[in-house]
Specification:
Shape: globular
Oligomer: single chain
Number of helices: 4
Bound molecules: tetrahydrodeoxyuridine
Distance between the termini: 29 Å
Length: about 140
């Protein structure tokens, strides 16, 4: 991936920390999802007093995109930290990895974990979710 595009995604993900709704954990997360057509969909985590309805930043971004008809994705950038202070990577939870598996080719979808524009790593979805279960497993013709 091009460095300028990665930096743009990191900026977009960091920008979403402002909107994170995390009154219970105080852990703010921002995400920027790059569609194949170049459009970036952003997301933040949205917590809930009943706890379980909480939605992660990554899923917010995916659900915004899919609900607007987008189905092809290239990469997602995720940032997060207690009180919005970024000191280490915030890797996607298992549920979010599974949502990525639904819409993305695990060999061709990139997860960018960042602290800032100079400190980031790029992982292939397959590395984060080896031997994942996806739509192809339900299709016997594949
Ligand atoms: N969180 C995310 O937004 N993304 C992840 O993949 C990990 C966890 C959020 C959920 C919750 O609001 C807070 O971080 C603490 O778990």
């Amino acid at each position: 991936m091009q460095k300028d595009l990665i930096e743009k995604m990191i900026d977009a993900a960091i920008g979403m920390l402002e909107f994170s709704y995390a009154p219970y954990s105080g852990f703010k997360v921002g995400a920027a999802l790059l569609a194949e057509n170049g459009k970036i969909y952003t997301g933040c985590n949205i917590e809930n007093a009943a706890y379980t309805p909480t939605n992660c930043a990554e899923r917010t971004a995916f659900f915004k995109a899919v609900s607007e008809g987008e189905h092809g994705f290239k990469a997602i950038c995720v940032v997060g930290g207690k009180n919005g202070i970024l000191t280490e990577y915030a890797p996607p939870c298992g549920v979010c990895r599974q949502v990525m598996m639904e819409f993305c080719d695990p060999e061709n979808f990139w997860v960018i974990l960042a602290v800032d524009k100079d400190n980031y790593d790029v992982f292939k979805l397959k590395e984060l979710l080896p031997f994942g279960f996806g739509p192809g497993n339900l299709d016997s013709s594949k």
